[in-house]
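User: Please predict the structure of the protein below. I'd like the answer in structure-token form so I can feed it into my own downstream comparison script.

Assistant: Understood. Taking the following sequence of 151 residues as input:
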Amino acid sequence: NIYLNDVSKLNETEIHCLFYPRTINDIEYLISKAKSQGRTISVRGQAHTMGGQTLPLRKSHQTNYVCDLKYMNHVEYDEYTKDVFVEAGATWTHVIHKLNLYGRSPVVMQSYCTFSVAGTISVNAHGITSDDAMVESVIRIEYIDMNGRKG
């Protein structure tokens, strides 16, 4: 049996399988596998939630999959447009290190830089450096849903 928890250590949950995708193709495979077995997928970046939000429901009749995005952490910076392209598992530490190479920094920051970028955006986190929400600096989000559709 595989058991996962979040940072609170109050939400131990049994899961069927833990996946560490590195590419979108890995995620497409996981979606196909989960659908064929009638399982759901929970997604986590750094597992920093404190209420079990990134874990499958404990009352589920079967254990399910967890997709841990920590290896999907690539960060690119476009010097011309000043845009940053970030994979969902990248932490703010990854972003800061990349931007430091160009003398830049994020406009809005949370209190810690160990959170995943996607996790920050998914909870509509705000920064400590301003009243702005982190999502206000997002230009576009690419995603894949449980039916394999990309948006």
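That's the full token string. The domain at 2-68 is CATH 3.30.43.10 (Uridine Diphospho-n-acetylenolpyruvylglucosamine Reductase; domain 2).
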